[in-house]
Amino acid sequence: MEQRRGFTLIELAIVLVIIGLLIGLGVGLIGPLTKRAKVIESREIVDAAVFSLISYAAGNKCLSDNLTQANVRSTNDAWGSPLFLRVAPELYGGNCNPFSGNICNRKTTSLIVKLCEDTACTNYQTVSNVAFVVASKGSNYNLQIANKTNEVWVYIAGLNVDSYSGTYGGIIDPNRIEEFDDIVKWVTLDELRAKMGCLMQIRIVNNELPYGFEGGSYIATVYAEGGVSFPSGGKYKWCREGNLPSGLIANPSPSSTDCLNLQEDQWGQADNLVISGTPAKGTAGTYHLTFFVRDNNDPTGPNDNIAKRTLVLTINPATFTTPPSLSCAYCGMYDTKGECESKCTGPRKCIQDYCGSLLCWKCSD
Hints:
By secondary structure, this protein is α+β, with helices and mostly antiparallel strands. The chain has three helices and 23 strands. The chain folds into three domains: 40-196, no CATH class; 202-316, Immunoglobulin-like, CATH 2.60.40; 329-363, no CATH class. Helices cover 18% and strands 29% of the residues.
């Protein structure tokens, strides 16, 4: 009779040890896998917030510093912490409106991002003219970037830092130095303008100037559009290269042989530039004029938007035509009946008719 053997206690113990090891390994993987999933989810949330802000800017020509107003899908990361948002001050609020000083009109912003290579940020790379920054606190629930007056400091992975303290999004942020794990995205002004489909920040509209005549009244206006308007005294500042013909003046009047190197305070301010007057005798010819216009993009520095355009002003010679004296002969008629009868034939040789205001005689047939 065949005997059936079962597991011995030693064999059973070995099986239980193996099962325990497998369970232990599985439990040990749960934490890292969960963290990895939340990191991926938070990156997607940050990317979605960036996309929403770009869409908001495209529709409004300005940004918002409120994630809810910008229709961001989720204002919290995967760990439930509020997203960090920093917007360049020139691109929202009272500094920006759809009609003047909007994103498409801007050339620069005051916000920069520093990519720090050490905790003190003495070695860094700079990203200038940043439009906005979005960040997640990461898995440690600790916002570690530095949010300074005109700068945001972002650290390389592996550095032990904590440069942010205080309250953000209604939550007190811990003051705890640990490995940097913030998830940070930023968009520069040029990137934002490109994604919005912006054209030139400022331009001169005219393609040509009307021609004039010696001794004749003349007026022409040079127009500009776009840019960041000055709050008062005229939207733009103007400068001209090239001489006007005698008898014409420009308003504003400043001219130079090198407008780009002329100090801004020497440019003339007005909405438009107007050329007017009466070209003097002997000024007939073509005049190549280059007009420069600048805006108020950088009130305290040289980084204004500037556009230029060269236009040709043509002055023609005076043309005076003296009409011939009015007479019966001018109309092919005769002054007297006798003169008419001597030239005409027929039973009723001559009849009267008018040549302008003159009563004359002409042949009847």
